[in-house]
Amino acid sequence: MVVREDVVSSRPANGSAGDRLVMVITPLAVLVVWEVSVRLGYLHSLFFPPPSLVFQTIARLTRSGELPGHVLISLQRVFLGFFLGAAPGVLLGMSMGWSRRVRAAIEPMVSALYPVPKVALLPMILLLFGIGELSKVVLVAIGAFFPAVINAMTGVMGISPVYFEAAANCGAGRWKTFTRVIIPGSLPVTLAGIRLAFGMALILVVTAEFVAARSGVGAMIWLAWETLRTEKLYAGVVTWAFLGLVSTWCLRWVEASVIRWRPHTS
Fold first, then answer.
1. With contact defined as beta carbons under 8 Å apart, do 96 and 107 qualify?
2. Which region among 1-10, 134-143, 247-256 has the lowest average model confidence (pLDDT)?
3. 197: nearest Cα among 235, 140, 236
4. Count of CB atoms within 10 A of residue 63's CB?
5. How far is C-alpha 234 from the chain's CA centre?
6. CB contact at 8 A, 142 and 119
7. Are 118 and 202 in contact (CB under 8 A)?
8. Which of the pair, 26 or 150, is modelled with greater confidence?
9. Structure confidence by residue, pLDDT tens digits, 83-139
10. Which among 7-21, 206-220, 246-260 has the top mean pLDDT?
């Protein structure tokens, strides 16, 4: 049931100049092959608009303010739902990892609900909260909650009992144990869960906007599909993918800054 990324120190993907060069060359090569294939007629431009047209569309939509407007609306939903779901998820997960009784009470429900596709809950959420902003925020919050709670619980359970014994021998109360042992000891796995939770939030907000929104990146993509404006569809997808990449870099930087005792190789 554990959802986590490898928290054991390993060589980062961009740790050397050669790795960074490969990271740049590979997507550029894909774009060049794509562009050439369309211009030579191997790919239909209606279904695979050339990258040059896609980037021109992104530039045009950015200048007009349409794309930034949709992006800001979607990000507002993402951040609000993420914090409403991940923050209580982390606290509950730490409590479950620390207390057997809390874990026995909550873990069966988490185990049962986690495998349910969150998209499948959207009709129920729309029925309960309507098609306004709240339904999209609730869906994002539910999606962010489970990776956060499961990874936080796993992080606490992975702390060696020696640290709890040392804290008890030093006379630490529950609050000091929580702040000096639980939080720092579980932080690597917890932050990995937060990264997963944010990625889930990015996915679910677009899904919700497909169905129940007139604004946002998902709504823009869906309207472009309905009108066969595929260059605009690809522009929305590329923009959201870029934001996902940037968010991953930012969260990795936060991890490296917060977990200073964790060894990193360059």
1. yes
2. 1-10
3. 140
4. 10
5. 20
6. no
7. no
8. 150
9. 999 999 999 999 999 989 999 999 999 999 999 998 889 999 999 998 888 999 999
10. 206-220
Which of helix, strand or coil describes residue 130? coil
Number of H-type helices and E-type strands within the chain: 11, 0
Using only C-alpha atoms, the chain has a radius of gyration, in whole angstroms, of 22
Report whether pLDDT(1) > 70. Answer: no
DSSP 19: H
Q: Which long-range contacts (CB under 8 A, 24 or more apart) does 56-63 make?
A: 56/231, 57/231, 57/232, 57/234, 57/235, 58/235, 58/238, 58/239, 61/232, 61/235
156 versus 173: the higher-pLDDT residue is 156
Q: How far apart are CA 140 and CA 200, in angstroms?
A: 8
CA distance 194 to 89: 9
Give the tokens for residue 98. Answer: 């620390």
Instruction: Say what the pLDDT of residue 263 is.
Output: 53
For residues 152 and 147, what is the distance between their CA atoms, to the nearest angstrom?
A: 8
Q: Could you tell me the two tokens for 136?
A: 């999209």
Helix, strand, coil % over all residues of the chain, rounded to 5? 80, 0, 20
Residue 189 has pLDDT above 50, yes or no: yes
Structure tokens at 220: 């823009």
Q: What are the tokens at 73?
A: 């609306």
- CA 11-17-19 angle, to 5 degrees, is 55
Distance of CA 43 to the CA centre of its chain: 32
